Amino acid sequence: MKIAVIGAGAWGTALANVFSQKGLETCIWARESGVTAKINKDHENSWYLPGIRLDEGLHASVDMARVCDGAEAFVWVVPTQFTRHALEQFRPHFPHKPTIICANKGIELKTLRTMSEVVDDVLSDMKPRFAMLSGPSFASEVCRNIPTTVTLGCSSERRGKKLQEILSSESFRVYTNTDYRGVELGGALKNIMAIAAGVSDGLNFGSNARAALITRGLEEMSRFGEKMGARKATFRGLSGLGDLVLTCTGDASRNRQVGLKLGQGRKLVDILDEMRSVAEGVKTTEAVYTLAKQKGVSMPITEQLYQVLYEDKDPREAVTELMTRELRDE
Ligand SMILES: NC(=O)c1ccc[n+]([C@@H]2O[C@H](COP(=O)([O-])OP(=O)(O)OC[C@H]3O[C@@H](n4cnc5c(N)ncnc54)[C@H](O)[C@@H]3O)[C@@H](O)[C@H]2O)c1
Ligand SMILES: O=P(O)(O)OC[C@H](O)CO
Questions:
Q1: In what order do the strands lie in the sheet with 148-153?
Q2: Residues 2, 41, 190, 283: which is the catalytic one?
Q3: Which atom of ligand 2 is nearest to the CA of 280?
Q4: Per-residue confidence (pLDDT) for residue 93, from 0 to 100
Q5: Around 162, how many Cα atoms within 13 Å sit in the side-chain half-sphere?
Q6: What is the per-residue pLDDT for 11?
Q7: Which residues contact 223 (CB under 8 A, 6 or more apart)?
Q8: What residues make up the catalytic site (predicted)?
Q9: 3-state DSSP helix/strand/coil percent for the chain, to nearest 5?
Q10: 105 alpha carbon to ligand 1 midpoint, in Å?
């Protein structure tokens, strides 16, 4: 079976490496020819995942037709804000009824659409088979074959089980969940909370505050998710709580790093300027803030973070406002 991985950032590279190590024919598409040259010749993606030796069977190309030729599944790892445009470019190279497994995490800001919705917008006449792969998984750890567990959200139980078998390996354990909506929203929403936890730690607020953000953040994510048609229970799983804990506490999280620097007094524009990697939570905060207002969902942490990110609010003032809201039941 051939798998096409679209997007050769850290996560696309790590996933492609898992599949190639497993013996699946795997071809990864990169935008940058420098990246493909390094993967093919040196078996390393020194731009996005430096210092990690990749499987020699893994092949990279910038040629969309070549990457897609004969592939039976397309693992989509292009950052969310570029996904619509890239899907439009790939569309002519997809077969009818393509299996699209999204592994990116975010909400498209200009349309407020989730990844399953963007795939549907661009490919609905081709009847895509959609699945969402998400969960606590730092690319660098996955590449070192450190035990990792993720969830595959797929509305068809039968197709989900089939993909689970194909994608799992000894160190990469895939669970299934038919609530693909909850799985995609968990991955998108935890990035907001990871920035917020970073801000709190950047202010040196310590463990109590971080635990509070994780717990109340999960409540906020679940409330929003239910309003968007997801199941509350999904948010207690790997793609919700699991990824939330990882990125609120793990310093390898780019979203957490953005928050840490904001908490230390840096400006968002300067922080983003220094980054080659994507921190999806920045734009997703704005998307979720807008959606929550439209749908009448109370999201106090998201609201305060939005004001810190986009209205230059002092992070200390944001925390004070969170702490002095009207008292209520848990
Ligand atoms: N890195 C991780 O550990 C990890 C784990 C799970 C999920 N994810 C998710 O995977 C997705 C990709 O993240 P990543 O970490 O692989 O990326 P990355 O930060 O390592 O690299 C940035 C990627 O963005 C691409 N890019 C930049 N400008 C672009 C444009 N104009 N059009 C299309 N692509 C463009 C680059 O080619 C590169 O592939 C994100 O949604 C992220 O949340 C990442
Ligand atoms: O580095 P982050 O914050 O994008 O997090 C990476 C993954 O989402 C962790 O599961």
A1: 59-61, 25-29, 2-6, 73-76, 99-102, 129-134, 148-153, 172-177
A2: 190
A3: 4
A4: 98
A5: 12
A6: 98
A7: 297, 298, 299
A8: 190
A9: 55, 15, 30
A10: 9
Tens digits of residue pLDDT in 247-264: 999 999 999 999 999 999
pLDDT under 70 in the chain at which residues? none
CA of 252, closest atom in ligand 2: 1
Residue 164 is inside which H or E element, if any? Answer: helix 157-167
**215 Cα: distance to centroid of ligand 1 (angstroms):** 27
What pLDDT is attached to residue 127? Answer: 98
User: What is the pLDDT at residue 52?
Assistant: 96
Ligand 1 centroid distance, CA of 10 (Å): 7
- Ligand 2 pocket, CB under 6 A: 105, 136-138, 191, 194, 243, 246-247, 253-255, 280
Burial of 10 by CB count in 10 Å (0-12 exposed, 13-18 middle, 19+ buried)? buried
Nearest residue to 151 (alpha-carbon basis) of 171, 166, 131, 130:
131
**ipTM tops 0.95:** yes
Q: 300-310 and 315-323 are packed helices; what angle lies between their axes, rounded to 10 degrees? A: 160
190 counts as catalytic: yes
Of the ligands numbered here, which is closest to the C-alpha atom of 198?
A: 2
* Amino acid in position 261: K
Q: How far is CA 188 from the centre of its chain?
A: 6
Instruction: Determine the Cα–Cα distance for residues 91 and 98; give it in Å rounded to an integer.
Output: 10
DSSP state letters, 286-315:
HHHHHHHHHHT---HHHHHHHHHHHS---H
In the chain, the domains with their CATH numbers are 2-178 (3.40.50.720), 182-323 (1.10.1040.10)
Taking the C-alpha atoms of residue 76 and residue 89, their distance in angstroms, rounded to an integer, is: 13
Contact 148, 172 (CB under 8 A): yes
Alpha carbon 328 to its chain's center: 32
Ligand 1 pocket list (CB less than 6 A)? 7-12, 31-32, 48, 77-80, 82, 86, 103-106, 137-139, 277-278, 280
